[in-house]
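ok, trying the design again with the full structure, not the truncated one.
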């Protein structure tokens, strides 16, 4: 269990807000990290593992032209996945992971290219691009940690992450 999952659930519980997760390369690992925390059912609505590209369009509402032009490993795809799961599962917050865990490149993107996204109330939206090194399992677990960290950073008043790389870009929200 990652400390990020506990912190996310605590913050959402304090706000009486809910969470839904869309996953591709992580294949359910984000949902697993969240649901291992006791009391997760109070805020966690559910998840969609859209491993196949066509499911991103059919279930999460990702634009088909976008997928055809850029492939599934794209920042806008990640954001649309987060928006789509938020809407489909009726949650306050939606997160998404999409990328290449390996062993082979995908959609013209090298192994380790990952996009994580958050969509929330009041137009809060954020995408982070990750360039990860390591084996497939390491890339997937770092993607889980990164999407949970990104969500914590977007929750009003919450700024986790002493040490390590920080995202210094301000979120304007749209």
């Amino acid at each position: 269990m990652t400390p990020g999952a506990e912190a996310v659930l605590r913050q959402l519980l304090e706000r009486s807000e809910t969470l839904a997760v869309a996953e591709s390369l992580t294949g359910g690992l984000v949902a697993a990290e969240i649901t291992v925390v006791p009391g997760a059912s109070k805020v966690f609505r559910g998840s969609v593992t859209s491993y196949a590209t066509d499911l991103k369009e059919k279930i999460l509402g990702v634009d088909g032209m976008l997928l055809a032009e850029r492939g599934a490993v794209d920042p806008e795809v990640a954001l649309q996945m987060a928006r789509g799961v938020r809407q489909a599962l009726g949650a306050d917050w939606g997160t998404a992971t999409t990328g290449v865990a390996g062993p082979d490149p995908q959609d013209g993107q090298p192994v380790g290219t990952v996009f994580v996204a958050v969509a929330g109330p009041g137009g809060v939206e954020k995408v982070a691009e990750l360039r990860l090194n390591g084996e497939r399992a390491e890339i997937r677990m770092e993607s889980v940690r990164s999407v949970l960290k990104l969500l914590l950073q977007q929750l009003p008043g919450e700024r986790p992450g002493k040490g390590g790389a920080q995202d210094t870009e301000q979120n304007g929200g749209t």
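Keeping the full-length input from now on. The CA atoms of residues 84 and 126 lie 14 Å apart.
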